[in-house]
Amino acid sequence: MPRADSPLIDAGSPLDPSSGNPEACFQFDQLSVERQIGKCDIGAVERIELFSDGFESP
User: Which stretches does the entry tag as region Disordered (predicted)?
Assistant: First the structure.
């Protein structure tokens, strides 16, 4: 799993993963997490943010 400060985060292809274009990221990573359009991470797994603000809310 990439660390939060990794340069791999959101550095993948901006193409739609479901387009079938060979230059696009795979639609799902190796953990079956769907990759987002234009924001996929480079590597085998997609980093998942658990909290939108980076902090756990009560």
Answer: 1-23
How far is Cα 16 from Cα 29, in angstroms, rounded to an integer?
14
pTM: 0.65
Query: What's the CA gap between 37 and 57, in Å, rounded?
Result: 27
pLDDT in tens, the chain (58 residues): 888 899 999 898 889 888 889 998 898 999 998 887 778 889 899 887 766 555 555 4
- Domain boundaries along the sequence of the chain: 1-47
3-state SS class at 34: strand
Cα–Cα nearest to 5, from 38, 41, 29, 35: 41
Residues 6+ apart with CB under 8 A from 13: 23, 24, 25, 40
